[in-house]
């Protein structure tokens, strides 16, 4: 009988599979996870296909599959998904597969071992040993750690007693990652609008099949409560649910709300899970033991046994775009996964992406609308502060009008939030004597003054130095001045303006741990702070019942940097942040400090006219052929040597296949021309919407010379960032 040969995809940066012989006693089918030799090492791969006609000349040189792993096979829908994502993003299939195989260290689970006392007497007695025996005298089993902790001894003491037989070991069962959720645990009383929306979503899930619903509701309208009804229906039907969140670190509130509604916490998936938990979660997902997973974008690649619904919360959020390795957009790929495996997808947002808004307008997505805040709360009233005429004195950043409004809120014992999307103390440090600006040696950027850390830091590469005491150029001493504000500087100003107020600064660089951040957010929600000063860390999804004023310190910050999505992003961000105000009590108010109150984004925010923003933005995109009316891809060439990068960029342009539907722009120096010592050039490729831009790129790049040395080419289809 002829030996069987299979093609195995391995998680390295390659598109093609490798062929292996199947040992006679091994049963293998496509999807099986296997260990195979690759070069000098062993790696885990996945059988992608049978190979009925292996090349006979190579046959004898083929290596054998080492082993089949004892995990469920990757289902055809996940394998198709890997192929699809790779084909669309141009990331190699191996790299995409790698995201699906990020299971950490599988293999036999380390058993949790417990101990209990026996009748054996210790050979010698010490105070430490006595404490252990006393702690266990009740006869109950404890884990070794618990026993050691309770008796305040080291693990060695416990192990010593085990060796002498004084303690016996017992294998403890692993605690389950998630108990069964109860879809009827605590159903809310819905308003009429919520009821209609919940019914629509429930029906969608009940009918099954691929559909996309855009749950479009103002901040505070109860979107979460409403999509929980879809989740409940999916649980009743026995399928798995994935809820995607832009930043899992910030979703403590979500886990609690889920537990409140369903009686148990869902399983979590994100990059900071400890390896053991990662492995257990991966396996439990594959064995259909986890009904609901809440995760960051990478949760999209888990090997669900029976996924029946994906909810993408805050679907407009830019954090869904992965910018390194495989460049993919998790919201778009969630829709793809739904269409391949034929189940419903729900996108939720108060400020839908322009893409989703257009899809809803054209009827490709079904819009489910929640027009009002729950419980009669009002959307905040937005008031502009014209910094040209009403600005603060020089060197200050909080205008008198904003300061007065904050003061009033504080006197009423309510909370206020000052928002500035800039970490650190000041974005620029300048020598007053000669004008020298402190720059990063590796990047085309200024160093940001971080006073809490007492360092100047590069936000692109992380380089940092202590603040210089003398100017390296003119040698003046004590001549450096901080220019512009960051949250730390605002803190200083606010402490001056509002003495006695309890102020908390929330900024990602000040976050020591996720637990700490979660505790701080709880403190805010429970009113232990009066004034929060924060970056976009505070913009997302939090519910602070006593927060009634939001001041946007620099509303213009994200505009006018040549980024085609600047207007959309600014609108979404400012709408979200001001939406934190007045979610429960009274009427919230948002202040926008701006130099351009007449800008369409500011006007739409001030008038509370979301439609005006979308209308304006959609018309503009249609006119210029920007997404979603056209397709974009960006190619970034980078190298240590500037000329090498530019030359390769030019070579690429000269090799671009001629096609009148495609425009290739560049190479142009990227807006941030040097990052981590690498010079960067950018090509922008534009095509009509109906055009297969990924196919074009693939043909083009196949003909391009291989990148050599430290030259790098990054391909970003549907780019979100343009720096
Ligand atoms: P969104 O996600 O649309 O901003 P949320 O789902 O966070 O809104 O709801 C805002 C607040 O209103 C939350 O505290 C939520 O618990 C509460 N809420 C919404 N709908 C109801 C309801 N039907 N019954 C009780 N509380 C509700
Ligand atoms: Zn740098």
Topology record:
Layout: E1 5-9, E2 18-21, E3 33-38, E4 41-50, H1 56-59, E5 67-68, H2 76-89, H3 93-100, E6 112-117, H4 127-135, E7 142-143, H5 144-151, H6 155-163, E8 167-172, H7 192-207, E9 212-217, H8 223-236, E10 240-244, H9 252-262, E11 267-269, H10 275-286, E12 292-295, E13 307-313, H11 330-341, E14 345-349, H12 354-361, E15 366-370, E16 381-386, H13 387-390, H14 400-411, E17 415-419, E18 428-431, E19 448-450, E20 455-457, E21 464-465, E22 480-483, H15 487-497, E23 503-506, H16 514-525, E24 531-534, E25 547-552, H17 566-578, E26 589-594, H18 600-607, H19 610-624, E27 630-639, H20 642-655, E28 663-675, E29 678-688, H21 693-702, E30 712-717
Parallel strand pairs: 9-14, 9-15, 10-12, 10-13, 11-12, 13-14, 16-26, 17-24, 17-25, 23-24, 25-26
Antiparallel strand pairs: 1-2, 1-4, 3-4, 3-5, 6-7, 6-8, 18-22, 19-20, 20-21, 27-29, 27-30, 28-29
Helix pairs in contact: 2-3, 2-11, 4-5, 5-6, 7-8, 17-18, 18-19
The structure holds adenosine-5'-diphosphate (ADP) and zinc ion (ZN).
* Spatial order of the strands forming the largest sheet: 11-12-10-13-14-9-15
| Rg calculated over all Cα atoms | 29 Å
Beta content comes to 15-25%
| Net shape | globular
Number of strands: 30
Helix count from the secondary structure assignment: 21
Low-pLDDT regions: none
Largest sheet features: 7 strands, parallel
Structural class by sheet pairing and helices: alpha/beta
Bound molecules: adenosine-5'-diphosphate, zinc ion
Helix content: 25-40%
Measured between the Cα atoms of the first and last residue, the distance is: 59 Å
Which whole number gives the mean pLDDT?
92
């Amino acid at each position: 009988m002829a030996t069987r040969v299979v093609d195995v995809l391995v998680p390295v940066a390659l598109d093609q599979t490798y062929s292996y012989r199947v040992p006679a006693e091994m049963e293998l089918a496509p999807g099986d996870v296997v260990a195979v030799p690759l070069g000098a090492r062993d790696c885990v791969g996945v059988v992608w296909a049978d190979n009925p006609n292996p090349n006979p000349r190579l046959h004898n040189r083929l290596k054998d599959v080492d082993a089949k792993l004892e995990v469920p096979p990757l289902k055809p829908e996940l394998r198709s998904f890997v192929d699809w994502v790779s084909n669309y993003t141009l990331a190699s299939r191996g790299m995409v597969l790698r995201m699906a195989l990020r299971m950490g260290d599988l293999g036999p689970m380390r058993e949790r071992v417990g101990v209990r006392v026996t009748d054996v007497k210790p050979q010698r007695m010490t105070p430490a040993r006595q404490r252990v025996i006393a702690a266990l005298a009740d006869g109950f089993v404890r884990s070794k750690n618990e026993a050691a902790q309770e008796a305040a001894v080291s693990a060695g003491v416990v192990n010593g007693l085990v060796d002498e037989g004084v303690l016996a070991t017992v294998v403890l069962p692993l605690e389950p990652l998630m108990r069964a959720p109860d879809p009827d645990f605590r159903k809310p009383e819905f308003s009429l609008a919520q009821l209609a929306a919940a019914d629509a979503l429930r029906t969608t899930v009940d009918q099954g099949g691929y559909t996309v619903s855009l749950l479009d509701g103002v901040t505070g309208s109860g979107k979460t409560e409403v999509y929980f009804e879809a989740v409940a229906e999916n649980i009743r039907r026995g399928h798995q649910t994935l809820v995607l969140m832009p930043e899992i670190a910030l979703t403590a509130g979500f886990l609690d709300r889920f537990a409140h509604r369903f009686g148990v916490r869902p399983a979590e998936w994100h990059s900071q899970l400890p390896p053991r938990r990662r492995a257990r979660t991966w396996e439990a997902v594959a064995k259909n033991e986890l009904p609901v997973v809440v995760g960051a974008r990478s949760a999209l690649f888990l090997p669900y046994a029976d996924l029946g619904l994906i909810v993408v919360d805050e679907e407009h959020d830019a954090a869904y775009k992965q910018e390194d390795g495989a460049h993919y957009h998790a919201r778009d790929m969630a829709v793809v996964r739904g269409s391949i495996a034929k189940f419903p997808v729900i996108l939720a947002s108060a400020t839908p992406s322009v893409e989703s808004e257009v899809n809803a307008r054209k009827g490709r997505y079904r819009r489910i609308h929640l027009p009002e805040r729950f419980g009669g709360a009002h959307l905040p009233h937005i008031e502009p502060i014209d910094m040209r005429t009403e600005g603060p004195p020089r060197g200050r950043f909080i205008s008198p009008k904003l300061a007065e409004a904050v003061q009033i809120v504080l006197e009423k014992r309510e909370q206020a939030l000052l928002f500035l999307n800039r970490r650190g103390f000041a974005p620029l440090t300048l020598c007053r004597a000669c004008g020298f600006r402190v720059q990063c040696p590796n990047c085309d950027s200024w160093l940001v003054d971080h006073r809490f850390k007492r360092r100047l830091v590069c936000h692109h590469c992380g380089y940092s130095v202590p603040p210089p005491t003398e100017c390296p150029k003119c040698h003046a001493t004590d001549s450096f001045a901080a220019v512009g504000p960051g949250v730390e500087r605002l803190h200083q100003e606010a402490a001056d303006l509002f003495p006695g107020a309890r102020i908390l600064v929330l900024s990602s660089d000040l976050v020591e741990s996720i637990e700490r951040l979660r505790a701080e957010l709880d403190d805010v929600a429970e009113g232990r702070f009066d004034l929060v000063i924060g970056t976009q860390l505070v913009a997302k999804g939090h519910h602070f019942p006593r927060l009634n004023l939001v001041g946007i310190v620099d509303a213009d910050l994200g505009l006018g940097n040549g980024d085609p999505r600047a207007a959309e992003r600014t609108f979404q961000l400012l709408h979200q942040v001001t939406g934190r105000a007045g979610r429960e009590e009274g009427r919230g108010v948002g202040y926008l400090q701006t130099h351009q109150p007449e800008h369409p984004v500011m006007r739409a925010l001030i008038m509370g006219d979301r439609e005006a923003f979308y209308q304006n933005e959609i018309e503009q995109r249609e006119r210029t052929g920007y997404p979603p009316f056209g397709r974009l891809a960006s190619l970034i060439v980078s190298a240590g040597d500037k000329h090498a990068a530019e030359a390769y960029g030019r070579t690429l342009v000269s090799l671009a296949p001629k096609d009148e539907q495609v425009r290739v722009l560049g190479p142009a120096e990227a807006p941030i021309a040097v990052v981590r010592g690498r010079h960067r050039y950018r090509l922008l490729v534009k095509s009509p919407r109906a055009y297969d831009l990924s196919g074009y790129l693939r043909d083009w790049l196949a003909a391009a010379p291989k990148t050599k040395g430290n030259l790098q080419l990054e391909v970003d289809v549907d780019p979100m960032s343009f720096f």
